[in-house]
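Lab notebook, bench 4. The sequencing result for the construct came back, and we need a structural model before the next group meeting so we can plan mutations. Quick request posted to the team channel:

Model the 3D structure of this chain.
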Amino acid sequence: MEKLTVTASPHERGDVSTAKIMTDVIIALIPALLASGLIFGGRALMLVGFCMISAMGLERLCNLVMKRESSISDLSAAVTGMLLAFNLPVTISYFKAFLGVFVAIVITKQLFGGLGHNFANPAIVGRIVLMVSFPAAMTNWAVPFYDPKAIETGATPLVTGYESYRSLFLGNVGGCLGETCKAALLLGALYLIAKRVINPAAPLAFIATVFCFSALTGRDGLYQILSGGLILGAFFMATDYVTTPITTPGKLIFGIGCGVITCVIRFYASYPEGVSFSILIMNIATPLIDMATIKRSRIAKYESARESEEA
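Done. Here's the predicted structure in token form:
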């Protein structure tokens, strides 16, 4: 008699894997990586490499300690390390960068069960912990094309408020090493959209909300979009599969919420930047958004099917 094997779903698998998606994300981030090396020097590239290697090493160590299968081959840890590095100033010490990676990989990701179980974007949590713990180091912005032997630092465009659109777009400003060159980030974002790796609903809602909120409060919306980490956060962090809503209406709500919170923090709080905090808050709200939008989506489909049957 033939033996039947029962396995858990899914039973039909596509050709899209986590490793393939993460590879596309890394490819999309390469233009910004090269721009950071050009703008801030070789240390920017070394810092990114250090964070990526640390993330993969800590992930593998957690796999061994927790007796799980190795997960470094899915490249999610590498992407987390890369994104965290993009959210750091090039002047930060390797020790502090490692602490951020530890928080992102060990605490935020692995202690909650690994990929697919984390409650928030690990890179976002790592950056926020570093911001709260080491505010001076996290706001020590090197000016573009600085001399490592005589480091010059300055404020970000969100503080100065007088940088040209051209400088903001090309990255000739101070800031985190991966957020300054908007041209490179947008090129990577277009690649991810063309490859259908990300849905543009949340990023566009995020950006549009910041523009409208800024205009309504008498501020330059375009300047707000091109300053700080808005483009990086919108396209590469507010599109995380695990911590953002599933449905398109949910993604729009998520993006609008991120935009409103970002503007409130930027305009009325003591922090000049609010992208990280806004994404973290909306990550926490994602289960509630999913519950509301998925239920409404099912009701709408049911009513549509019933109307078709009656017709």
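The CA atoms of residues 76 and 300 lie 35 Å apart.
Will bring this to the meeting.
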